[in-house]
Amino acid sequence: MTDERFSGEPLTDDGVKVATLDRGPSRELRIRWREFKGHHFLDIREWSVSQHNAQWWPTKGKGISVKARELAVVLTAVQQALELNKDTRS
Asked: Choosing a second label site near 71 at 20 to 30 A (CA), which of 27, 30, 39, 44?
């Protein structure tokens, strides 16, 4: 019995590439600026290589979409996290 999630062509990783971060063997974090039904968003998702067909697939349950109107708040939160991280390293 074949697993339907891995049959056929892999999902397309569309949108504008913002960044890709290596997360270890056969895993990476992809950050893309995307659009769906006229709405723009930032897609942050882990992708991994399938053992079934050696193709890249988004990892189930390991991603988030940030709406365009939420970006400023998320940016502020990331800047605060960077400051907190700097404080803990001293």
From this structure: 27
